[in-house]
Amino acid sequence: MNKLVRFGVSLGKDLLDRFDALIAERGYASRSEAFRDLIRGSLVEEEWRAGGEVAGAVTIVYDHHKKDLVNRLTDIQHEAHDLIISTQHIHLDHDHCLEIIAVRGRALEVRRLADSLRSVKGVLQGTINMASTGKKLG
Predict the structure, then answer these.
(1) Domain range spanning residue 30?
(2) How much is the CA Rg of the chain, to the nearest whole Å?
(3) How many domains are there within the chain?
(4) pLDDT digits (tens, 9 = 90+) for 12-65
(5) Does residue 2 lie within any of the structural domains?
(6) CB-count burial class (<10 Å; 0-12, 13-18, 19+) for 86
């Protein structure tokens, strides 16, 4: 386990009050845990910018009645089988489906996969949730 290091941070009172309200709303046990979470989030963003190995989830919502849409989405996913860890298919209602696609690979390739899925005609919404493999967050 890493040795804990204490350090000081100077903030204006208004900013600190707003931060304290935010961490209370989110249920953090302490300012330290909230700062650690913010730092980790910034490091994960940097992992994605740097193009290294990343993990994440691509989420798409679509109308499964659109002609050839399901086949096209399946083809794209098969072409990217080396990036896809798992998929979950959820029926939202009679017409709409949600797919959550867990991914792991080089950041650029993961983004390309997300873009190719989002851009298929008939996909109503697509997002990518950036995560980390955890290797560099220790």
Answers:
(1) 13-49
(2) 19
(3) 2
(4) 999 999 999 999 999 999 999 999 889 888 888 888 888 888 999 999 999 999
(5) no
(6) exposed
